[in-house]
Amino acid sequence: MNISEQKTRNIDEIISRSSSIKGSSIPARYRLNPRTDRHHESEPYRQNIFGERNDNNKQHKTILMVGETGTGKTTLINTMINYMLDIKKEDKVWFEITDECQSEQSDETDESDEFLVQSQTSTITIYGFYLQESPIDLTIIDTPGYGDTRDPDKDKEIAMGLFNLSRCNDCIHEIDAVCLVINSTVNRLSDRQIYIFDAVQSLFGKDIAKNIVLLFTHSNGAPPKNALTAVKVAKIKCAVNDKNQPVFFLFDNCQSNAADKRYETIQQTSWDLSFEGMRCFFKFVENIKPKSFQMTQDVLQQRNQLEAKMSNLRSRVREVEQKQNELKQTQEALEKNKEYVKNKKNFEYNVEVQYKEKVDIDPKRWRLTKKATCCTVCEENCHYPGCWWATDLSWCSVMTDDYCTVCTNKCHYSKHVKTSQIYETKTKIETRTYKELKKKYEEIDDTKSVETLLIKELQELEEQKIKLVMEAFHCVETLEMIALHTDSLLTLQHIDFLIEKLKEINEPEKAKTLENIKNRAEEKTWSKGILKKMFQK
Fold this sequence. Notes:
This protein is α/β, with parallel strands linked by helices and 537 residues long. 44% of the residues lie in helices and 20% in strands. The C terminus is likely disordered.
Protein backbone atom coordinates (compact mmCIF):
# COMPACT_ATOMS: atom_id res chain seq x y z
CA MET A 1 0.00 0.00 0.00
CA ASN A 2 1.51 3.34 -1.07
CA ILE A 3 1.43 6.56 0.98
CA SER A 4 -1.56 7.98 -0.92
CA GLU A 5 -3.61 4.82 -0.39
CA GLN A 6 -2.69 4.74 3.30
CA LYS A 7 -3.76 8.35 3.75
CA THR A 8 -7.10 7.70 2.00
CA ARG A 9 -7.62 4.73 4.26
CA ASN A 10 -6.84 6.84 7.35
CA ILE A 11 -9.29 9.53 6.23
CA ASP A 12 -12.00 6.93 5.58
CA GLU A 13 -11.39 5.49 9.05
CA ILE A 14 -11.79 8.93 10.68
CA ILE A 15 -14.93 9.63 8.60
CA SER A 16 -16.41 6.35 9.88
CA ARG A 17 -16.03 7.70 13.42
CA SER A 18 -17.51 11.10 12.56
CA SER A 19 -20.89 12.62 11.71
CA SER A 20 -21.59 14.42 8.45
CA ILE A 21 -22.46 18.12 8.92
CA LYS A 22 -25.65 18.94 7.04
CA GLY A 23 -25.44 21.31 4.12
CA SER A 24 -21.76 20.72 3.40
CA SER A 25 -20.63 19.94 -0.17
CA ILE A 26 -16.94 20.35 -1.03
CA PRO A 27 -15.12 20.16 1.21
CA ALA A 28 -17.32 17.58 2.92
CA ARG A 29 -17.50 18.63 6.55
CA TYR A 30 -17.50 16.08 9.34
CA ARG A 31 -17.84 16.52 13.04
CA LEU A 32 -15.55 14.23 15.01
CA ASN A 33 -17.58 12.24 17.50
CA PRO A 34 -15.60 12.71 20.70
CA ARG A 35 -16.05 10.95 23.98
CA THR A 36 -17.65 13.66 26.14
CA ASP A 37 -16.58 13.39 29.75
CA ARG A 38 -18.16 15.53 32.42
CA HIS A 39 -18.06 14.12 35.90
CA HIS A 40 -20.73 16.36 37.37
CA GLU A 41 -22.91 19.24 36.20
CA SER A 42 -21.28 21.58 38.71
CA GLU A 43 -17.76 21.03 37.41
CA PRO A 44 -16.19 24.08 35.77
CA TYR A 45 -14.97 22.25 32.69
CA ARG A 46 -16.06 19.61 30.23
CA GLN A 47 -13.95 17.32 28.07
CA ASN A 48 -14.35 16.33 24.44
CA ILE A 49 -11.87 13.53 23.82
CA PHE A 50 -11.17 12.03 20.40
CA GLY A 51 -9.00 8.92 20.43
CA GLU A 52 -7.04 7.38 23.29
CA ARG A 53 -3.75 8.38 24.89
CA ASN A 54 -1.92 5.08 24.75
CA ASP A 55 1.65 6.03 23.82
CA ASN A 56 3.40 7.63 26.79
CA ASN A 57 6.50 8.27 24.65
CA LYS A 58 4.55 10.40 22.18
CA GLN A 59 4.96 14.16 22.49
CA HIS A 60 2.06 15.82 24.26
CA LYS A 61 1.33 19.53 23.83
CA THR A 62 -1.16 21.62 25.83
CA ILE A 63 -2.44 24.89 24.38
CA LEU A 64 -4.74 27.50 25.93
CA MET A 65 -6.87 29.48 23.46
CA VAL A 66 -8.11 32.96 24.40
CA GLY A 67 -10.11 35.31 22.20
CA GLU A 68 -13.20 37.42 21.87
CA THR A 69 -16.24 36.02 20.03
CA GLY A 70 -15.92 36.69 16.32
CA THR A 71 -12.12 36.58 16.10
CA GLY A 72 -12.10 33.10 14.57
CA LYS A 73 -10.94 31.10 17.59
CA THR A 74 -13.26 28.19 16.83
CA THR A 75 -12.01 27.93 13.24
CA LEU A 76 -8.41 27.97 14.48
CA ILE A 77 -9.05 25.04 16.81
CA ASN A 78 -10.48 23.05 13.90
CA THR A 79 -7.59 24.11 11.67
CA MET A 80 -5.17 22.69 14.24
CA ILE A 81 -6.98 19.37 14.09
CA ASN A 82 -6.88 19.22 10.29
CA TYR A 83 -3.21 20.18 10.31
CA MET A 84 -2.50 17.35 12.75
CA LEU A 85 -4.26 14.97 10.32
CA ASP A 86 -2.26 16.36 7.35
CA ILE A 87 -5.46 17.21 5.48
CA LYS A 88 -4.82 18.91 2.12
CA LYS A 89 -7.23 21.00 0.09
CA GLU A 90 -7.31 18.29 -2.60
CA ASP A 91 -8.59 15.78 -0.01
CA LYS A 92 -11.91 17.69 -0.15
CA VAL A 93 -12.75 16.98 3.50
CA TRP A 94 -12.77 19.10 6.64
CA PHE A 95 -12.99 17.81 10.21
CA GLU A 96 -14.34 19.74 13.17
CA ILE A 97 -13.97 18.94 16.85
CA THR A 98 -15.69 22.00 18.30
CA ASP A 99 -19.34 22.17 19.29
CA GLU A 100 -20.84 23.80 16.21
CA CYS A 101 -24.23 24.50 17.78
CA GLN A 102 -22.71 26.24 20.78
CA SER A 103 -20.44 28.33 18.56
CA GLU A 104 -23.31 29.39 16.36
CA GLN A 105 -25.50 30.21 19.34
CA SER A 106 -22.86 32.40 20.90
CA ASP A 107 -22.58 34.38 17.65
CA GLU A 108 -26.23 34.60 16.68
CA THR A 109 -28.44 34.47 19.76
CA ASP A 110 -30.29 37.68 20.55
CA GLU A 111 -30.39 39.40 23.91
CA SER A 112 -33.53 37.59 25.02
CA ASP A 113 -31.58 34.32 25.02
CA GLU A 114 -28.44 35.88 26.49
CA PHE A 115 -28.62 34.12 29.87
CA LEU A 116 -28.90 30.72 28.15
CA VAL A 117 -25.86 31.38 25.99
CA GLN A 118 -23.83 32.74 28.88
CA SER A 119 -24.53 29.68 30.99
CA GLN A 120 -23.56 27.41 28.08
CA THR A 121 -20.36 29.27 27.28
CA SER A 122 -19.06 30.01 30.77
CA THR A 123 -17.57 26.53 31.11
CA ILE A 124 -13.99 25.71 30.11
CA THR A 125 -13.85 23.11 27.34
CA ILE A 126 -10.93 20.72 26.94
CA TYR A 127 -10.44 19.21 23.50
CA GLY A 128 -8.26 16.12 23.65
CA PHE A 129 -6.98 14.91 20.27
CA TYR A 130 -5.15 11.60 20.60
CA LEU A 131 -5.01 9.82 17.26
CA GLN A 132 -2.41 7.37 16.00
CA GLU A 133 -2.38 9.30 12.70
CA SER A 134 -1.37 12.52 14.52
CA PRO A 135 2.35 13.20 15.11
CA ILE A 136 1.65 14.51 18.63
CA ASP A 137 -1.02 14.24 21.29
CA LEU A 138 -2.79 17.57 21.57
CA THR A 139 -4.83 19.09 24.39
CA ILE A 140 -6.58 22.39 23.69
CA ILE A 141 -8.09 24.35 26.57
CA ASP A 142 -10.79 26.75 25.36
CA THR A 143 -12.22 29.49 27.56
CA PRO A 144 -15.43 30.50 25.72
CA GLY A 145 -17.42 33.36 27.16
CA TYR A 146 -14.40 34.67 29.05
CA GLY A 147 -14.07 38.37 29.75
CA ASP A 148 -17.64 39.49 30.34
CA THR A 149 -17.04 42.97 31.78
CA ARG A 150 -20.69 43.16 32.83
CA ASP A 151 -20.23 40.36 35.31
CA PRO A 152 -16.77 39.95 36.93
CA ASP A 153 -18.17 36.96 38.84
CA LYS A 154 -17.80 34.94 35.62
CA ASP A 155 -14.09 35.62 35.65
CA LYS A 156 -13.91 34.25 39.19
CA GLU A 157 -15.55 31.07 37.89
CA ILE A 158 -12.99 30.78 35.08
CA ALA A 159 -10.12 31.46 37.49
CA MET A 160 -11.46 28.81 39.85
CA GLY A 161 -11.98 26.45 36.91
CA LEU A 162 -8.36 26.80 35.74
CA PHE A 163 -7.09 26.26 39.28
CA ASN A 164 -9.22 23.16 39.78
CA LEU A 165 -8.29 21.94 36.31
CA SER A 166 -4.58 22.22 37.06
CA ARG A 167 -5.04 20.37 40.35
CA CYS A 168 -7.15 17.41 39.35
CA ASN A 169 -6.90 16.76 35.60
CA ASP A 170 -4.46 13.92 34.92
CA CYS A 171 -3.55 15.24 31.45
CA ILE A 172 -2.66 18.81 32.36
CA HIS A 173 0.52 19.35 34.34
CA GLU A 174 2.14 21.99 32.17
CA ILE A 175 1.25 24.37 29.38
CA ASP A 176 3.14 24.87 26.12
CA ALA A 177 1.45 27.94 24.69
CA VAL A 178 -1.13 30.57 25.59
CA CYS A 179 -2.62 31.79 22.29
CA LEU A 180 -4.17 35.25 22.08
CA VAL A 181 -6.44 35.25 19.02
CA ILE A 182 -6.78 38.64 17.28
CA ASN A 183 -8.36 39.74 13.99
CA SER A 184 -5.47 40.95 11.82
CA THR A 185 -7.55 43.79 10.35
CA VAL A 186 -8.01 45.73 13.61
CA ASN A 187 -6.39 49.14 14.08
CA ARG A 188 -6.85 49.07 17.83
CA LEU A 189 -7.81 46.46 20.38
CA SER A 190 -11.24 47.01 21.85
CA ASP A 191 -11.58 47.66 25.56
CA ARG A 192 -13.16 44.24 25.83
CA GLN A 193 -10.23 42.51 24.07
CA ILE A 194 -7.64 44.21 26.27
CA TYR A 195 -9.69 43.34 29.32
CA ILE A 196 -9.87 39.67 28.26
CA PHE A 197 -6.13 39.39 27.65
CA ASP A 198 -5.25 41.21 30.87
CA ALA A 199 -7.67 39.09 32.88
CA VAL A 200 -6.32 35.81 31.48
CA GLN A 201 -2.69 36.82 31.91
CA SER A 202 -3.43 37.80 35.51
CA LEU A 203 -4.10 34.12 36.24
CA PHE A 204 -0.56 33.05 35.32
CA GLY A 205 2.86 33.42 36.88
CA LYS A 206 5.53 35.71 35.47
CA ASP A 207 7.25 32.68 33.92
CA ILE A 208 4.51 32.22 31.29
CA ALA A 209 5.31 35.36 29.25
CA LYS A 210 7.69 33.55 26.85
CA ASN A 211 4.93 31.07 26.02
CA ILE A 212 2.29 33.66 25.08
CA VAL A 213 1.93 34.13 21.30
CA LEU A 214 -0.35 36.09 18.99
CA LEU A 215 -2.50 34.29 16.42
CA PHE A 216 -3.75 36.74 13.77
CA THR A 217 -6.85 35.59 11.88
CA HIS A 218 -8.56 36.82 8.69
CA SER A 219 -5.09 37.55 7.32
CA ASN A 220 -4.14 38.18 3.68
CA GLY A 221 -0.55 37.15 4.37
CA ALA A 222 0.88 40.65 4.82
CA PRO A 223 2.42 41.66 8.17
CA PRO A 224 -0.43 43.03 10.33
CA LYS A 225 1.33 46.31 11.12
CA ASN A 226 -1.70 48.11 12.53
CA ALA A 227 -2.72 45.15 14.67
CA LEU A 228 0.83 44.76 16.00
CA THR A 229 0.91 48.46 16.85
CA ALA A 230 -2.41 48.01 18.67
CA VAL A 231 -0.90 45.15 20.70
CA LYS A 232 2.09 47.30 21.67
CA VAL A 233 -0.12 50.25 22.60
CA ALA A 234 -2.21 47.93 24.80
CA LYS A 235 1.01 46.69 26.47
CA ILE A 236 0.08 43.04 26.01
CA LYS A 237 2.84 40.82 27.39
CA CYS A 238 3.95 38.03 25.06
CA ALA A 239 6.95 36.21 23.62
CA VAL A 240 9.34 38.28 21.52
CA ASN A 241 11.82 37.32 18.79
CA ASP A 242 15.51 38.21 18.49
CA LYS A 243 14.49 41.66 17.22
CA ASN A 244 12.37 42.20 20.34
CA GLN A 245 9.19 42.02 18.25
CA PRO A 246 6.07 40.04 19.32
CA VAL A 247 5.97 36.44 18.14
CA PHE A 248 2.94 36.02 15.87
CA PHE A 249 1.47 33.64 13.29
CA LEU A 250 -0.93 34.36 10.42
CA PHE A 251 -4.10 32.51 9.44
CA ASP A 252 -7.05 32.91 7.12
CA ASN A 253 -10.42 31.48 8.09
CA CYS A 254 -11.86 30.12 4.85
CA GLN A 255 -10.78 26.47 4.85
CA SER A 256 -14.27 25.06 5.42
CA ASN A 257 -15.94 27.37 2.87
CA ALA A 258 -17.55 25.65 -0.13
CA ALA A 259 -15.18 25.34 -3.10
CA ASP A 260 -15.82 27.78 -5.96
CA LYS A 261 -13.92 27.52 -9.26
CA ARG A 262 -14.13 31.29 -9.71
CA TYR A 263 -12.04 31.77 -6.56
CA GLU A 264 -9.96 28.59 -6.67
CA THR A 265 -6.61 30.41 -6.63
CA ILE A 266 -7.66 32.63 -3.71
CA GLN A 267 -9.01 29.67 -1.76
CA GLN A 268 -5.81 27.69 -2.34
CA THR A 269 -3.76 30.68 -1.15
CA SER A 270 -5.97 30.96 1.92
CA TRP A 271 -5.49 27.28 2.69
CA ASP A 272 -1.72 27.44 2.20
CA LEU A 273 -1.45 30.55 4.40
CA SER A 274 -3.27 28.93 7.30
CA PHE A 275 -1.38 25.66 7.11
CA GLU A 276 1.97 27.43 6.83
CA GLY A 277 0.94 29.43 9.90
CA MET A 278 0.19 26.16 11.69
CA ARG A 279 3.54 24.67 10.63
CA CYS A 280 5.41 27.66 12.06
CA PHE A 281 3.25 27.71 15.19
CA PHE A 282 3.85 24.05 16.01
CA LYS A 283 7.57 24.47 15.30
CA PHE A 284 7.55 27.23 17.94
CA VAL A 285 5.59 25.00 20.34
CA GLU A 286 8.03 22.14 19.75
CA ASN A 287 11.04 24.29 20.60
CA ILE A 288 9.69 26.34 23.49
CA LYS A 289 10.08 24.97 26.98
CA PRO A 290 6.67 24.19 28.50
CA LYS A 291 5.81 25.84 31.79
CA SER A 292 4.73 23.88 34.80
CA PHE A 293 1.37 24.80 36.27
CA GLN A 294 3.08 25.15 39.65
CA MET A 295 3.56 28.93 39.60
CA THR A 296 0.16 29.31 37.98
CA GLN A 297 -1.31 27.19 40.77
CA ASP A 298 0.40 29.48 43.28
CA VAL A 299 -1.06 32.56 41.55
CA LEU A 300 -4.52 31.05 41.32
CA GLN A 301 -4.39 29.90 44.93
CA GLN A 302 -3.37 33.39 46.03
CA ARG A 303 -6.22 34.84 43.97
CA ASN A 304 -8.71 32.39 45.47
CA GLN A 305 -7.42 33.17 48.95
CA LEU A 306 -7.55 36.90 48.28
CA GLU A 307 -11.12 36.57 47.05
CA ALA A 308 -12.08 34.50 50.10
CA LYS A 309 -10.23 36.78 52.52
CA MET A 310 -11.79 39.91 51.05
CA SER A 311 -15.25 38.36 51.26
CA ASN A 312 -14.62 37.36 54.86
CA LEU A 313 -12.91 40.69 55.61
CA ARG A 314 -15.97 42.64 54.50
CA SER A 315 -18.18 40.43 56.66
CA ARG A 316 -15.81 40.55 59.63
CA VAL A 317 -15.37 44.34 59.39
CA ARG A 318 -19.15 44.71 59.42
CA GLU A 319 -19.32 42.38 62.40
CA VAL A 320 -16.50 44.12 64.24
CA GLU A 321 -17.98 47.54 63.58
CA GLN A 322 -21.41 46.32 64.66
CA LYS A 323 -19.89 44.85 67.84
CA GLN A 324 -18.04 48.12 68.43
CA ASN A 325 -21.34 49.94 68.02
CA GLU A 326 -22.96 47.55 70.49
CA LEU A 327 -20.23 48.19 73.05
CA LYS A 328 -20.43 51.94 72.52
CA GLN A 329 -24.19 51.81 73.09
CA THR A 330 -23.45 49.93 76.31
CA GLN A 331 -20.92 52.59 77.31
CA GLU A 332 -23.51 55.31 76.64
CA ALA A 333 -26.07 53.43 78.73
CA LEU A 334 -23.57 53.19 81.62
CA GLU A 335 -22.82 56.91 81.34
CA LYS A 336 -26.51 57.78 81.21
CA ASN A 337 -27.21 55.64 84.26
CA LYS A 338 -24.00 56.34 86.17
CA GLU A 339 -25.92 56.97 89.39
CA TYR A 340 -27.39 53.48 89.20
CA VAL A 341 -23.90 52.11 88.47
CA LYS A 342 -22.40 54.03 91.38
CA ASN A 343 -25.09 52.73 93.75
CA LYS A 344 -24.90 49.23 92.23
CA LYS A 345 -28.56 49.31 91.26
CA ASN A 346 -30.02 47.39 88.36
CA PHE A 347 -31.44 49.07 85.22
CA GLU A 348 -32.47 48.15 81.68
CA TYR A 349 -31.11 49.46 78.38
CA ASN A 350 -31.51 48.65 74.66
CA VAL A 351 -28.70 47.76 72.26
CA GLU A 352 -28.56 46.66 68.64
CA VAL A 353 -26.93 43.21 68.61
CA GLN A 354 -25.88 40.86 65.85
CA TYR A 355 -26.55 37.19 65.43
CA LYS A 356 -25.75 34.60 62.76
CA GLU A 357 -28.23 32.57 60.81
CA LYS A 358 -27.62 29.83 58.26
CA VAL A 359 -29.33 30.51 54.94
CA ASP A 360 -29.49 28.59 51.67
CA ILE A 361 -27.09 29.67 48.91
CA ASP A 362 -28.86 31.60 46.16
CA PRO A 363 -28.74 29.25 43.11
CA LYS A 364 -28.71 32.25 40.75
CA ARG A 365 -25.61 33.69 42.39
CA TRP A 366 -23.17 30.98 41.35
CA ARG A 367 -23.75 28.74 38.35
CA LEU A 368 -20.85 26.33 38.75
CA THR A 369 -21.00 25.37 42.40
CA LYS A 370 -23.66 25.63 45.06
CA LYS A 371 -21.37 24.72 47.95
CA ALA A 372 -19.42 26.78 50.45
CA THR A 373 -16.58 25.82 52.79
CA CYS A 374 -17.63 27.01 56.25
CA CYS A 375 -15.94 26.92 59.64
CA THR A 376 -18.17 25.41 62.31
CA VAL A 377 -16.07 26.93 65.12
CA CYS A 378 -15.82 30.53 63.89
CA GLU A 379 -19.18 30.31 62.10
CA GLU A 380 -17.73 31.99 59.02
CA ASN A 381 -17.88 31.45 55.26
CA CYS A 382 -14.26 30.66 54.50
CA HIS A 383 -14.64 29.88 50.79
CA TYR A 384 -17.78 30.89 48.98
CA PRO A 385 -18.23 29.53 46.40
CA GLY A 386 -16.15 26.60 47.58
CA CYS A 387 -13.91 24.23 45.63
CA TRP A 388 -16.32 21.88 43.89
CA TRP A 389 -13.74 19.09 43.60
CA ALA A 390 -12.35 19.13 47.17
CA THR A 391 -13.97 16.08 48.74
CA ASP A 392 -11.13 16.25 51.26
CA LEU A 393 -11.30 19.81 52.56
CA SER A 394 -7.55 19.86 53.19
CA TRP A 395 -7.36 20.35 49.40
CA CYS A 396 -9.57 23.43 49.42
CA SER A 397 -7.63 26.38 48.00
CA VAL A 398 -8.03 28.42 51.21
CA MET A 399 -6.21 25.72 53.22
CA THR A 400 -2.45 25.82 53.74
CA ASP A 401 -0.70 22.99 55.61
CA ASP A 402 -4.11 21.68 56.73
CA TYR A 403 -5.18 24.97 58.33
CA CYS A 404 -7.57 27.60 57.04
CA THR A 405 -6.02 30.90 55.95
CA VAL A 406 -9.33 32.75 56.17
CA CYS A 407 -11.37 32.12 59.31
CA THR A 408 -10.66 34.13 62.46
CA ASN A 409 -9.07 31.33 64.47
CA LYS A 410 -7.33 29.74 61.45
CA CYS A 411 -8.94 26.44 62.35
CA HIS A 412 -7.93 22.96 61.17
CA TYR A 413 -9.67 21.78 58.02
CA SER A 414 -11.47 19.09 60.05
CA LYS A 415 -13.46 21.88 61.73
CA HIS A 416 -14.84 22.88 58.34
CA VAL A 417 -17.72 21.51 56.30
CA LYS A 418 -18.80 21.79 52.69
CA THR A 419 -22.40 22.91 52.78
CA SER A 420 -25.18 24.36 50.65
CA GLN A 421 -25.80 26.97 53.36
CA ILE A 422 -23.80 30.01 54.40
CA TYR A 423 -23.68 32.13 57.53
CA GLU A 424 -25.47 35.45 57.30
CA THR A 425 -25.08 38.12 59.98
CA LYS A 426 -28.24 39.94 61.01
CA THR A 427 -29.12 42.45 63.72
CA LYS A 428 -31.92 42.93 66.22
CA ILE A 429 -32.77 45.20 69.18
CA GLU A 430 -32.24 43.47 72.50
CA THR A 431 -33.11 44.61 76.01
CA ARG A 432 -30.37 43.97 78.59
CA THR A 433 -29.89 44.65 82.28
CA TYR A 434 -26.94 46.06 84.15
CA LYS A 435 -27.06 43.04 86.46
CA GLU A 436 -26.47 40.67 83.52
CA LEU A 437 -23.70 42.87 82.16
CA LYS A 438 -21.91 43.08 85.49
CA LYS A 439 -22.13 39.33 85.98
CA LYS A 440 -20.66 38.71 82.49
CA TYR A 441 -17.62 40.91 83.06
CA GLU A 442 -17.05 39.76 86.62
CA GLU A 443 -16.78 36.23 85.25
CA ILE A 444 -14.04 37.51 82.89
CA ASP A 445 -12.11 39.56 85.49
CA ASP A 446 -13.57 40.58 88.83
CA THR A 447 -10.64 42.89 89.62
CA LYS A 448 -11.46 45.46 86.91
CA SER A 449 -14.45 47.67 86.33
CA VAL A 450 -17.04 47.03 83.64
CA GLU A 451 -15.93 50.22 81.85
CA THR A 452 -12.28 49.08 81.73
CA LEU A 453 -13.20 45.67 80.35
CA LEU A 454 -15.45 47.25 77.73
CA ILE A 455 -12.55 49.39 76.51
CA LYS A 456 -10.28 46.32 76.40
CA GLU A 457 -12.84 44.40 74.36
CA LEU A 458 -13.09 47.29 71.89
CA GLN A 459 -9.29 47.26 71.51
CA GLU A 460 -9.26 43.52 70.86
CA LEU A 461 -11.88 43.91 68.15
CA GLU A 462 -9.82 46.65 66.51
CA GLU A 463 -6.78 44.34 66.56
CA GLN A 464 -8.84 41.64 64.82
CA LYS A 465 -9.79 44.08 62.09
CA ILE A 466 -6.16 45.17 61.63
CA LYS A 467 -5.07 41.54 61.30
CA LEU A 468 -7.68 40.84 58.63
CA VAL A 469 -6.75 43.94 56.63
CA MET A 470 -3.05 43.06 56.74
CA GLU A 471 -3.68 39.48 55.60
CA ALA A 472 -5.61 40.73 52.56
CA PHE A 473 -2.85 43.24 51.75
CA HIS A 474 -0.19 40.54 51.89
CA CYS A 475 -2.20 38.49 49.36
CA VAL A 476 -2.07 41.42 46.92
CA GLU A 477 1.63 41.91 47.72
CA THR A 478 2.37 38.25 46.93
CA LEU A 479 0.46 38.48 43.64
CA GLU A 480 2.50 41.55 42.74
CA MET A 481 5.63 39.42 43.03
CA ILE A 482 4.54 36.25 41.22
CA ALA A 483 1.66 37.13 38.86
CA LEU A 484 2.14 38.23 35.27
CA HIS A 485 -0.60 40.81 35.85
CA THR A 486 -1.67 42.13 39.25
CA ASP A 487 -4.12 44.81 38.19
CA SER A 488 -6.94 42.55 37.07
CA LEU A 489 -10.58 43.11 37.99
CA LEU A 490 -10.29 40.18 40.40
CA THR A 491 -7.97 42.42 42.46
CA LEU A 492 -9.24 45.85 41.52
CA GLN A 493 -12.82 45.26 42.60
CA HIS A 494 -11.56 45.16 46.20
CA ILE A 495 -8.85 47.77 46.05
CA ASP A 496 -10.73 50.91 47.18
CA PHE A 497 -12.17 49.09 50.18
CA LEU A 498 -8.72 47.81 51.14
CA ILE A 499 -7.10 51.23 50.65
CA GLU A 500 -9.73 52.79 52.93
CA LYS A 501 -9.16 50.19 55.65
CA LEU A 502 -5.36 50.53 55.44
CA LYS A 503 -5.68 54.26 55.99
CA GLU A 504 -8.01 53.63 58.94
CA ILE A 505 -5.38 51.47 60.63
CA ASN A 506 -2.64 54.05 59.90
CA GLU A 507 -0.79 52.19 57.14
CA PRO A 508 -0.34 54.99 54.57
CA GLU A 509 2.62 53.37 52.77
CA LYS A 510 0.71 50.16 52.16
CA ALA A 511 -2.31 52.16 51.02
CA LYS A 512 0.01 54.00 48.60
CA THR A 513 1.18 50.66 47.16
CA LEU A 514 -2.41 49.75 46.32
CA GLU A 515 -3.12 53.21 44.96
CA ASN A 516 -0.19 52.73 42.55
CA ILE A 517 -1.72 49.45 41.33
CA LYS A 518 -5.06 51.18 40.83
CA ASN A 519 -3.44 54.12 39.00
CA ARG A 520 -1.56 51.70 36.76
CA ALA A 521 -4.85 50.06 35.85
CA GLU A 522 -6.55 53.39 35.19
CA GLU A 523 -3.91 54.17 32.57
CA LYS A 524 -5.38 51.36 30.47
CA THR A 525 -8.23 52.49 28.27
CA TRP A 526 -10.38 49.43 28.92
CA SER A 527 -10.44 49.91 32.66
CA LYS A 528 -11.72 53.45 33.00
CA GLY A 529 -15.42 52.83 32.48
CA ILE A 530 -15.36 49.45 34.21
CA LEU A 531 -13.53 50.73 37.27
CA LYS A 532 -15.87 53.72 37.53
CA LYS A 533 -18.90 51.43 37.58
CA MET A 534 -17.22 49.00 39.94
CA PHE A 535 -16.14 51.60 42.48
CA GLN A 536 -19.60 53.17 42.51
CA LYS A 537 -21.09 49.94 43.90
